[in-house]
Amino acid sequence: MGPDEPDNLRPFFDRPGREWIDDEAAVDAVNAWLYAPAQQAALRAFFASRVYTATDSDADEAWQDYWPANWRTVIRNYDPSKGSRFRGFLLVCYGNWISKRGPKLTRNRDKHIGLDDLPIQLVADGPSADDGALLKEKIRAVQHCLNRLHKNLRWVVFHRLLQGKSVAQTAALLGISDDLVKVRLHRALPALQKCLEKRGVIG
Fold this sequence. Notes:
This protein is an all-alpha fold. Helices cover 64% and strands 0% of the residues. It has 2 domains: 7-105; 115-198, Winged helix-like DNA-binding domain superfamily/Winged helix DNA-binding domain (Arc Repressor Mutant, subunit A, Orthogonal Bundle). It has helices at 10-13, 24-34, 37-50, 56-77, 86-105, 132-148, 151-162, 167-174, 178-198. Helix 4 crosses helix 5. The longest helix has 22 residues, at 56-77. The N and C termini lie far apart (43 Å).
């Protein structure tokens, strides 16, 4: 999960969590580490590796549900003498929580892409980009066209183009081969372009 544990946390992580759980400075330092951009990106990737249709917002919401409610339990039960570093122990705990809560946290293969999942810059170019009503209309048109795609094509487009993931990353998230990602993207783009043209999003 992201970079190695920093030197300033090793005095804590070398001891059982129950010995420092009430040390406010220690807990603050752990939180600062976990909420740093590199660690948050790693946590998103960890979540996505278990929920292949997850978006970054899904991952962020899951972490916000998990850590504030469970940090005391995680720290109290952490014991380096059992052979696990804090980072690994945390991911085991978080992974178990995801597995149990999955149906409530994640989107299934048939669920449509929501408005909040769309990066606004996709349709924010051009002279009318500052027109709020028109921009909202275009965003809804993009959403509509994406959700008209077959579910197998929709999520390839979503991860590959909207989230900017590589072919390999998209393949890993969807549990398919790199070649199949390319094939599905090739199939999806003409249909998506036709729909976007019909809805006036592109000329």
